[in-house]
Design a protein that fits this description.
Distance between the termini: 20 Å
CATH superfamily: Metal-dependent hydrolases
Helix content: 40-55%
Radius of gyration: 17 Å
Strand content: 15-25%
Oligomer: single chain
Strand order of the largest sheet: 1-2-3-4-5-6-7-8
Structural class: alpha/beta
Length: 262
């Protein structure tokens, strides 16, 4: 069985937490040996860190504020996240970035908080776990300011076009691919772009409990995505990269371990 690491799991979501032991067991049975729990707010980052402490052999996490929650950022947050990032469990700053699709927080505040977290990542020499939706030009311009001082950057759940991919790779960013690639309606462009992602910059993720792969058979009655479905995503990525699954799995595993120091 191939071994996998899921780089993006919203494991503190109540739909997964209510059966957490079973979720982690099913992941292990599927070959998903480790998971990176996503921190999306101060509260969720604290919860992610605590969860990792319960399962130290299987979980590590990120700590940060998603652009949806940028309005929650207070003056002392940089100090709080600096202290939190000192924990062994926290392997990256984020999820941070820009989301101009839903604008749950004002764009000016999103930009301010993105700057704050990139600056913190530079100070701490931590990788960054980023989010971008309908904000590529602003996102890449800000990222470019800091890239020479940043350790490593992953663009989580990449769903953009070739120009955006080229811009990200030009900044030596890693690319996170989710079950979006399994969607025959929205994922066709992404399927064609996979061949342009170098093996040492590609990582895979479920973004569970969201983005259940549309071509998964049979689908769970709950319609909840889980880390156990990561091998299915890997199969689709390998298919579109025209390479053996064993090779794809080994490449992603090596890249992910190096990125998150696992």
């Amino acid at each position: 069985m191939n071994e996998y690491i899921d780089i993006g799991v919203n494991l503190t979501n109540k739909s997964l937490m209510q059966d957490i032991d079973a979720v982690l067991h099913r992941a292990r049975q599927a070959g998903v040996s480790q998971l990176v729990v996503t921190g999306t707010s101060l509260e969720e980052s604290r919860a992610a860190t605590a969860l990792c402490q319960r399962y130290p052999d299987q979980l590590v996490c990120t700590a940060g504020v998603h652009p949806h929650h940028a309005s929650d950022w207070l003056e002392d947050y940089a100090d709080i996240f600096r202290d939190m990032a000192a924990s062994e469990q926290v392997r990256a700053i984020g999820e941070t970035g820009l989301d101009f699709n839903r604008d749950f927080s004002p764009r000016e505040k999103q930009i301010e908080v993105f700057h704050q977290q990139l600056s913190l990542a530079c100070e701490l020499n931590k990788p960054v776990f980023t989010h971008q939706r309908d904000a590529h030009d602003s996102f890449i311009a800000i990222l470019r300011e800091y890239r020479h001082r940043l350790d490593k950057v992953v663009v989580h759940c990449f769903t953009d076009d070739k120009t955006a991919l080229d811009d990200c790779l030009a900044l030596d960013c890693h690319i996170g691919i989710t079950g979006w690639v399994c969607d025959e309606r929205r994922g066709t462009e992404l399927q064609q772009l996979l061949k342009y992602i170098p093996e040492n910059r590609l990582m895979i993720e479920t973004d569970a409990p969201y983005l259940l792969p549309r071509d998964l058979v049979p689908k769970p009655k709950s319609r909840i995505n889980e880390p156990q479905y990561l091998p299915h995503i890997a199969e689709r990525v390998a298919h579109h990269q025209d390479k053996p699954l064993d090779q794809l799995a080994a490449e992603c595993l090596k890249t992910t371990r190096l990125f998150f120091n696992i």
